[in-house]
Specification:
single chain, mainly alpha, 85% helix, 0% strand
Length: 124
């Protein structure tokens, strides 16, 4: 049971980082075009920063950092860090499903290589 709890720090980190990235992408895509003028850019950034969704994603990133520190008290970084790569895999899949982002053979092959790398490193 203890190893399960130890791994929960890694999974919490991954889950919160995925949440943060997807919320940031969603909010950035709904914010519209960045204005060209300086004051317009500042208003645009402020609008994004004070969005409750963006604030929640910033908090999630902070909590993920705390969870990551806890994970590193339980595991060698050479073991834990490859799991962090799951962020790429999950965000990639979610971006295709949620935001209709492009899907290509090279992206799929790269994702398979990332997963294979995680499996190999976690076994060693």
């Amino acid at each position: 049971m203890s190893r399960f709890l130890d791994h929960s720090y890694i999974w919490t980190t991954v889950g919160l980082m995925v949440y943060s990235q997807l919320v940031m992408r969603w909010q950035a895509s709904t914010a519209g075009e960045i204005p060209l003028d300086g004051p317009g850019k500042l208003r645009f950034i402020a609008m994004l920063l004070f969005s409750p969704w963006v604030i929640s994603s910033l908090i999630a990133t902070f909590v993920a950092g705390v969870s990551w520190m806890l994970a590193l008290t339980r595991f060698e970084i050479s073991y834990a860090y490859p799991f962090y790569s799951l962020n790429y895999v999950i965000v990639f899949a979610a971006s295709v499903l949620l935001f209709n982002e492009s899907l290509s053979l090279t992206k799929i092959l790269g994702t398979i290589l990332v997963i294979a790398g995680i499996v190999v490193i976690s076994k060693g």
